[in-house]
Amino acid sequence: MLLFNNYYVGGAITLDYFKKIFKESVIVVLISSVMGLFSGTILSNNERVLASFPIILLVLPSLNSLIGDISTVLVSRLTSHLYIGTLSPKIQVSDRLKQDFYGLLITILLSLAALISLGYILGSVSGIQIVNPLLITSIFIITIMILFGLMFVFLFMGSILIFRKGKDPNNFLIPMVTSLADFLTPLFIIIFIQIFV
Amino acid sequence: MEARDTKGRIVKETFPSEMVSIVGDLFAGIVLSLLIVSFKSFLLLILIIPALLSLRGNLSGPFIARTSRDFIIGEFNKKSWFENVLATLFLSLLTALAIGVFSIFINFLLIRLYIFHIGLLIVIPVVSITLTLAISIPCSTFLNFLAFRRGLDPNNIVNPVMTAIDDFFTVICFYLTIIMLGVP
Fold it and tell me: How many domains does chain B have?
């Protein structure tokens, strides 16, 4: 009962925070979840390309999660900075933004190096055929760098604009960016393979 | 937060968490391919899995970020946490229903595989997501609390670590759900 003591205001239960989260999230969460179904469709439609380079299938979930994680950390950090006032709600380059950019860029590069190394080790151990490793590694790096650049600009501007409207950027941008990453990562890899191979 | 929050700190706190995430995801991929591939209804199941794996971004991610922010701005309390959990559960129920309905639709249009009762495509995501959140919510709240108490920035640590935990338990809970429901 103690838990509910805070909820009674004049005999009525108030769930303002719940309502705010629900209202701000419901549409974007539904759209993002349905987008997940289409990511699977992209993969199955390009089964032949992926079958030629089986290492891609092995590392794809981790690549998706890498760009998704870094984007989530960025949104989460920007939101906290905006709420505590250490980042001004203006679209302009600041020292705070540069620190976040370089910090996350170094992190994503180190993580990508670790991911590719682990992927190739796991691929060799499990007997997966490794075709043209230099080209595939280059495609992974180009894909992640392009996505990181696009996401950084989009998320920074998005966070500022949403925050200015008095809404929580976490509720809008995190669901959107994860689904976008899950959708764009395989799409970019497949496009680059078709261009370079 | 501002004074100590340099790029070095971001790398120092985020990179180890990201390593946990990468290893966890590679492991989840292996578990997925070992456990799910053998099912007769694999073509239908693989349709739902990417949408279920997006759970980490759509539901857990914002839940964790809101909890981190509440800790940082000093507004974390039982009320805010309870309402955050309640909203996440309501959203998860809606998400599961949407995944189920759209799966039926895509199956009807593209796959046309009727190996089990089609209504199970709605029940599977509902049960699976509920089971995963029953693990994810307490786990991420505890990690947020722990990171904050130790003077670390929860934003840098909790989300990447929880990606690995969420993805791994999504696969395990999905497997348990289809076994419980007797999916062939």
Answer: 1
